[in-house]
Amino acid sequence: MTLTLRHTSVHLYIAAAAFGVLLFAMPAAPASPDPDPDIPSAQSTRQPQSIDEQLRLASDYLSGRGVPQDSSIAAYWYEKAAGAGDPQAQLQTGYLYESGIGVPRDPARAFHWYQLAAAAGLVRAKANLGVAYLWGTGVAKNEQMAYQLFNEAAASGSGLAAGYLGDMYRVGVGVGRDQAAAERWYLKGVKLHDPKSEFSMGSILYEGKDHAPDLRTATKLLRESASSGYVQAMHLLGFLLARNPGLAKSPEEAVSWLNDSASAGLWRSSLVLGILARDGNGVPADTRAAYYHFRVALLQGGEVARKYVKHDLQSLSGDLGPSQTSAIDAQAQQWYQLHQAVLEFKFKEGENETRFPAYALAVPATGVHAVQLMPTPVE
């Protein structure tokens, strides 16, 4: 059996700081905290004194850890810490205003906090200034300025900025298309442990369009990217290993990565899982499992997925009969209710969890270059 599904094509990705915070920023300019913030007060909560205590309490309310989840109270304490000068809190507060989490959407105030974060010298903020210029978000679109800021940020150690430069050269945005230059920037991002650069370089080596494919190096890069939580890398790695089982660390590795990316909302991963179960490729042939995965793919992908799964669903439902088909449909629907969002990253909890909770980063549903923080789906 030959798997022939194509993974998603290259795209200019969204700039995201650690902890899943999306950053856009205005050009550097003098700014000071708003003396009268309109974030709801939290007089009924305990009153932390230090910045660290404020961030811990904000994190607790944002994630619902030990207290009822309340994004408005979380936003209040993040802004308190931001006003006291904590750069990470300034970035977080800016994102809350940009995305409307816990507060009404207010791009102007979001830009205010991003300015302060950039003025604090955070390299991530400079990379996100480049994003603002690249997309024309809150500032006149200026691809050359974006290019300059990405260069400066990459020189200061931003793998994210290096990856953006790779994308600009690969697609030809703001610069002439230059595959060799794109790969040089991706490799710099790889050295800086940027998951998206790892994915981009891994996909290039897997496809082998511009030079001979290198599946072993591609597997290594995709495994590093997937281990950092990048969902597209999970899918492509699972797909690669399903086609090349000799590169897998275990017989279960391909299916494990595909399950992870399917749970993050990628219908193509569910489709591949259905094909594997249908054909008994790497897993025991299982009509029920195949129907289930195809059904999930349809729920996730809608009309786009229908043309890929329609024939199999009809054929397998005939084998299973109405009773089993209805039961599996209900099971798939129940699972889908817990995994409706399409995620770009699935962040792991770490040492900063008590200040900035580990949230998943969702792919935008519209052309607006902003995303939504959300708890990682419960498996």
Automatic annotation (TrEMBL):
<protein>
    <submittedName>
        <fullName>Putative Beta-lactamase</fullName>
        <ecNumber>3.5.2.6</ecNumber>
    </submittedName>
</protein>
<dbReference type="InterPro" id="IPR050767">
    <property type="entry name" value="Sel1_AlgK"/>
</dbReference>
<dbReference type="InterPro" id="IPR006597">
    <property type="entry name" value="Sel1-like"/>
</dbReference>
<keyword id="KW-0732">Signal</keyword>
<dbReference type="GO" id="GO:0008800">
    <property type="term" value="F:beta-lactamase activity"/>
</dbReference>
<keyword id="KW-0378">Hydrolase</keyword>
<feature type="signal peptide">
    <location>
        <begin position="1"/>
        <end position="31"/>
    </location>
</feature>
<dbReference type="Pfam" id="PF08238">
    <property type="entry name" value="Sel1"/>
</dbReference>
<dbReference type="InterPro" id="IPR011990">
    <property type="entry name" value="TPR-like_helical_dom_sf"/>
</dbReference>
